[in-house]
Automatic annotation (TrEMBL):
Pfam families: OEP. Keywords: Cell outer membrane, Membrane, Signal, Transmembrane, Transmembrane beta strand, Transport. Residues 1-29 form the signal peptide. This is TolC family protein. It is found in: Cell outer membrane. The lineage of its organism: Bacteria, Bacillati, Bacillota, Negativicutes, Selenomonadales. SUPFAM superfamilies: Outer membrane efflux proteins (OEP). Belongs to the outer membrane factor (OMF) (TC 1.B.17) family. It comes from the Bacteria. Its main location: membrane.
């Protein structure tokens, strides 16, 4: 009897092969190369915060159409079926009507509604711009964090390589009896310390890459290669020029200015309650005892005026309430402008401070490199100590790390300054 093939085994084997093939493709996928500009564009196109802000803007845009409806005619169709009973008699009445109403005058309330809706759309536009600038700052900071982490990994690897070379030198001298065993032990300890720092630096780099992937919308495990490098590009505007630019372009400042205008329109709307409402109406209808009620036509046209000269002080209270809203908007605008100036000043001064550290740390690196070489030569010649070499190596690593930190602080402070000024993200 011929043995039937086990189809389940074939299916499992096929699925396993496909899974292995997919993972092989992923494993050998080329790294994604990104410049800072490309990273920002990707984030602006995919980040949920931008899409949420765009949805709010669309809602504000539609609110203008809703407000404009107050100035357009409204057509109403109505049908009713009625059964009346009185004593022993019952009667039916089927009624159809078409009515048209057009507001002619609302005391300025409709106009205020439209103006307020347009102003709120502008507020929403500034919120969208603010969201984009925040995303741009996040991407920029993450990008520079990766660059700094990458350079730190390089410095840590150099420190490990230097201590490995030094340890070999110490061991060779110990083997011929020219140095003590303590030199070997101390060198091994220092090598282990540097290896620990390298492990941490590599982990910091991996975390930084995952953070950037999250912001730009890539899978977190995506390997990226950055096209840009940490560099020093001088900022040309003065502090006063930066502050003046921020007061004219920062979205938060623009929002508060529009909110003041909204508060003024709210006052106009409240005052409209003191004035009459006038509208034109036209109506035609049919009614009959038999469904659908298509006989006995009647029609009417007219003007309807409504005025409430006395409402127990409700309108006056609304006006005073709106006045308080204007005062609040004015104070919030002043508070926001003060906060914006502080943001710009802090970012500017941090950038200047980091810029000064760049030049001093550059010189320190050069001096530390020369000192490390000297201490290596002295130790090999037997006139220097192991501690001198280790201290010189630690000083060199510290100097390089300080330079990387200064470059990182300069670039991120500059990015914060650009955000604080309200420079458009696109």
């Amino acid at each position: 009897m011929t043995k039937q093939p086990n189809w389940k085994k074939h299916l499992v084997a096929a699925l396993a092969s496909g899974f292995l093939a997919i993972n092989t493709v992923v494993a050998f996928a080329a790294p994604v190369e990104l410049s800072l500009e490309e990273s920002i564009k990707m984030a602006l196109n995919s980040n949920p915060a931008i899409k949420i802000a765009d949805a709010d803007r669309k809602s504000a845009e539609l609110q203008i159409n809703i407000a404009k409806g107050g100035k357009l005619p409204a057509l109403t169709l109505e049908h009713s079926d009625n059964l009346a009973h009185s004593g022993a008699d019952s009667d039916t009445d089927f009624v159809n009507s078409i009515s048209l109403k057009l507001n002619l005058y609302s005391g300025g309330k409709t106009e205020s509604d439209i103006a307020t809706a347009k102003l709120k759309l502008k507020v929403t536009d500034s919120v969208v711009a603010q969201s984009k600038q925040k995303i741009k700052l996040d991407v920029t900071n993450d990008y520079f964090t990766i660059l700094a982490a990458k350079n730190t990994v390089k410095v840590s690897q150099e420190a490990v390589d230097q201590m490995e070379a030094h340890l070999k030198n110490v061991q060779s001298q110990y083997s011929v009896g020219t140095v003590a065993k303590s030199d070997v032990l101390r060198s091994k300890v220092e090598l282990a310390n540097n290896q620990q720092k390298l492990i941490k630096a590599q982990n910091d780099y991996d975390l930084a890459v995952s953070s950037l992937n999250n912001v730009v919308g890539l899978p977190l495990a995506t390997e990226v290669q950055l096209k840009d490098e940490l560099k020093h590009e001088t900022y040309t505007l003065s502090l006063i020029e930066s502050i003046n630019y921020a007061l004219s372009h920062r979205p938060e400042v623009i929002q508060e200015d529009y909110n003041i205008d909204v508060a003024k329109e709210t006052i106009k709307y409240a005052k409209g309650g003191r004035l009459p409402d006038i509208s034109a109406t036209a109506k035609t209808g049919w009614h009959d005892r038999d469904f659908p009620g298509a006989d006995n036509n009647n029609w009417s046209v007219g003007l309807l005026a409504t005025w409430t000269p006395f409402d127990s002080g409700v309108t006056n209270a609304k006006v005073k309430q709106s006045d308080s809203g204007l005062i609040k908007a004015l104070e919030q605008a002043r508070q926001t402008k003060d906060s914006v100036q502080l943001d710009v000043r802090q970012a500017y001064l941090n950038m200047v401070e980091a810029e000064k550290r760049i030049s001093t740390s550059q010189v320190t690196v050069e001096q530390a490199e020369e000192d490390f070489k000297i201490q290596q030569v002295r130790y090999s010649a037997g006139v220097g100590t192991n501690v001198d070499v280790i201290d010189a190596q630690v000083a060199l690593t510290t100097a390089k790390t300080n330079y990387i930190q200064a470059m990182y602080d300069f670039n991120t402070s500059k990015a914060n300054l650009i955000k604080a000024m309200g420079v458009p993200a696109e």
